[in-house]
Design brief:
Layout: E1 10-12, H1 22-38, E2 43-45, E3 62-63, E4 66-67, H2 69-80, H3 88-100, E5 103-111, E6 118-125, E7 131-136, E8 159-161, E9 164-168, H4 177-185, E10 190-192
Parallel strand pairs: 1-2, 2-5, 9-10
Antiparallel strand pairs: 3-4, 5-6, 6-7, 8-9
């Protein structure tokens, strides 16, 4: 932990995606990355599932034992607009990170190239444009399981940054004390926890204590050193 950069200029993206349109979402993300770079951001954090948006309130026509045709078509549209990792969309995002000279954290709906399973994933890109880490949400929350599968590999990846190791947990995962402990065991000094909303309950698992060097925090639930457990 010696010689870590003591401060980090963070840009917290507060922007709406273009639901079900991955190309438009990527185009908007690239524009926002470059805008943040003009403000000298060193780390740019996007919300959960910015590409192609979080389908809040949608049922995809699902009830136990039945799915209607309209719901099937909605789900196919979402599937078709989920992205391969790596793939053409990550190439564009990496290029933007390189042009910005900044670290980028962004939530995506990932489509596995082999199994075709969708995953709620968070990606890290380094300032040289490299895809530095891909974290898949361990267990989708509630009805999210209609859309996304459980993570099957690469648990708790971290990226080495000038501020120390950086990892992420997505939304409800931050309520899992053992998941947080797994990140702490890897020595993270930057803990990114993207959400798709700003409900006050997400404040609960993210208390922050002072440390040297100080952990980065953000309104999108990027924090560190939480010790709160909720059942």
């Amino acid at each position: 932990m010696k010689d870590l950069k003591p401060t980090c200029r963070v840009a917290i993206v507060q922007a709406a995606p273009i639901l079900f349109r991955k190309d438009a979402c990527v185009e908007k993300a690239v524009s926002l990355i470059l805008e943040a770079a003009r403000l000298q951001a060193e780390l740019i954090v996007f919300p959960e599932l910015f590409i192609p948006g979080y389908p809040f309130g949608m049922t995809f026509g699902f009830t136990v034992g039945h799915r209607d045709e309209g719901g099937r078509q909605d789900w196919k549209r979402y599937y078709d607009n989920s992205i391969l990792v790596p793939g053409p969309e990550t190439e564009l995002l990496g290029r933007a990170a390189r042009e910005a000279g900044a670290w980028v954290s962004i939530g995506v709906s990932e489509r596995d190239a082999v199994t075709a399973t969708l995953y709620n994933s968070n990606l890290f890109f380094s300032p040289d444009g490299r895809l530095a880490a891909c974290h898949r949400k361990l267990k989708p929350t509630g009805a999210e399981r209609v859309v996304w599968g459980d993570a099957d590999r690469a648990y708790f990846p971290v990226a080495q940054t000038p501020w120390g190791p950086m990892g992420s947990l997505i939304c409800w995962e931050s309520y899992m004390p053992l998941a947080r402990a797994a990140l702490y065991e890897k020595g993270v000094t930057l803990y990114i926890s993207p959400n798709t909303n700003d409900n006050p309950e997400w404040q609960t698992p993210m208390p922050v204590r002072r440390a040297r060097p100080p952990p980065a925090t953000s309104p999108l639930r990027a924090g560190a050193f939480s010790s709160t457990a909720t059942c």
